[in-house]
Amino acid sequence: MSTCVEQVEHEQPATPAAWDTLRRKLSTLRAEQTRFGSRSALRLIADRIGGKLLKLKVVHVVWLDVNDVSVSAASYPDFTFRFLSAEEIARFAEDPAYDLEPEMADRAADGRNFCFAALDGDRLAAYGWYARDWIEPEHCDGFGLRMPPEVVYMYKGFTHPDYRGKRLHGAVMGLALRDFAADRVRALISTVEWTNDASLKSCARLGYRQLGLLARARVFGRTWWRAGAKTRERGVEIITPGAAKSAKLTIV
Ligand SMILES: CC(C)(COP(=O)(O)OP(=O)(O)OC[C@H]1O[C@@H](n2cnc3c(N)ncnc32)[C@H](O)[C@@H]1OP(=O)(O)O)[C@@H](O)C(=O)NCCC(=O)NCCS
Fold first, then answer.
1. Does residue 139 have its Cβ closer than 6 Å to ligand 1?
2. Is the pLDDT of residue 175 over 70?
3. Is the CATH number 3.40.630.30 carried by domain 59-214+228-239?
4. Rounded Cα distance, 53 and 76, in Å
5. Do strands 187-193 and 113-120 pair parallel, antiparallel, or not at all (unpaired)?
6. Which residue's CA lies nearest to atom 22 of ligand 1?
7. How close is the Cα of 164 to the center of ligand 1, in Å?
C-alpha cells in the first residue's frame, strides 16, 4: 500500500544482472542531480544506504493553513475539482495508470477518508486522499497520527504522468482544504519523504510550512525515533509503532 509520498525509480528493462541494477540506480541518481542538484542526490544516497542498513525513514511534516491558500479553480478552466464517490474510485482503480488499489474504494465509503480529484472530462488527472481523526501508519510513512477535528491529514497525492508539471497536485490540495473549511477545518497536515523534491516543491509553492522532521531507524534491534523540536503544540499526536507505549508529541 503506498503512502503519500513515493519516488518512482526510472524504469529500465529488468534483468537479473547486478550491473544493470547498478546502472539503473546511477541513472536515477543522475536524474535527481540534474533536476534538483547535488545536495538532493546526496540525500538520496544517504536515504537508500540508511534504508538498507538501519531501515531509516525520514519525512518532513508539513502544514497548510487555510488562510495561506491562494489557489482558485478559475485558474484551471479545463478541470473539474470535486470529491469522488466510492463507486468512481472502484472504476478508476481498474486502470493501473491511476495507482489506486481497489480497496481504496472501501476507504472512501467509511465516512472518515475522502478522495478529492481534478477531472479532465472522464479522465482522472490528479487526486489526493484526506483522513479525519486519525491515520494509520501504513498511510503515513510508518508514523500513526491522531488529529484534532479542525485538522485533516492529507496522503497519497498523485498526478497522472500525462498531467504532471501543471501544478495540479497543489491545486487539488488547496481546493480540497477550502471544501473542508466549510466544515470548520482550518489546516491540512501531511508527511513528505525528505527525498521527494517534486512533492516538496509543489507543497512549498502552495503555502505549506515545514514543521520539522520525523525520523525512525532500527539500531541494534531497537526502534529509535525522533521528532524535530518544532513538531509540538498543534494538537496532533504522533504514535510510533514498535514503541512499548505510544508517545504523545505535538506539532508546532
Ligand atoms: C509529486 C507529484 C504529485 C507532483 O504532481 P504535479 O501535479 O506534477 O505537481 P507540480 O506541477 O506542482 O510539479 C511539481 C514538480 O514535479 C516535477 N515535474 C514536473 N513535470 C514533471 C513530469 N512530467 N514528470 C515528473 N516530475 C515532473 C517538477 O520538479 C515540478 O516542479 P517545477 O515545475 O518547479 O520544476 C507527481 O509527480 C506524482 O504523482 N508523483 C508520483 C507520486 C508521488 O510522489 N506523490 C507524492 C504525494 S504527497
1. no
2. yes
3. yes
4. 45
5. unpaired
6. 164
7. 6
